[in-house]
Design a protein that fits this description.
The chain is mostly helical. Helices cover 88% and strands 0% of the residues. Helix 1 (2-19) runs antiparallel to helix 2 and helix 2 (24-58) runs antiparallel to helix 3.
Length: 179
């Protein structure tokens, strides 16, 4: 999961720095703590849930493992929707708290709003990757991380450099890579 986050933030940072201009990296960095919180929440729920389900499976209690998995999935989805709602509808207060200036406000708000729309996708990808290990398919998790990272980098280039979408393109690329 750390690789997942590194791929996205590195690619966004590199392409924004090269193609957006001097304020580009600052606008994405304003949203960074909020996006980190989204990833941390998804990782917390998936890691804790993974431990519970793995324990159930180890005890040969597949029915309880399935019930716990379902409960944890819905809890994760509920948390995802809360984070998406907060990020989308409370963008202005969030970026002000995180240190945005008037000069960075519009681009930071745009970046955070777009990321918030797809917060559920990010958290659910994190959720799925933990459970790939539990069900004995760890390679599937790492392959999906690598594929998402490569897709994000390619889409970053297309959206930012070719389509000139700026920071909004950087926000759309990882979400397009996840979906």
């Amino acid at each position: 999961m750390v690789l997942f986050f590194v791929f996205y933030t590195m690619a966004d940072g590199i392409f924004v720095a090269i193609f957006v201009g001097e304020n580009g990296p600052a606008t994405t960095n304003i949203a960074f703590p909020f996006t980190s919180l989204i990833i941390a929440l998804g990782t917390m729920l998936s890691t804790g849930g993974n431990a519970i389900v793995a324990k159930n499976l180890g005890e040969q209690n597949q029915e309880l493992a399935c019930r716990n998995f379902t409960f944890i999935f819905w809890a994760d989805l509920f948390a995802d929707l809360i984070m998406a709602t907060l990020g989308y509808f409370f963008t202005d207060p969030i970026i002000k708290i995180l240190g945005s200036t008037e000069k960075l406000h519009d681009k930071s708000a745009s970046y955070l709003k777009i990321l918030s729309l797809f917060a559920s996708c990010s958290m659910l990808q994190s959720f799925a990757q933990s459970f790939f290990i539990t069900v004995g398919r760890p390679r599937l998790g790492i392959y999906s991380i690598i594929l998402s990272g490569i897709t994000n980098a390619v889409l970053d280039y297309i959206f930012i450099a070719i389509f000139k979408m700026g920071v909004a393109g950087a926000a759309r690329a990882p979400e397009s890579a996840i979906v």
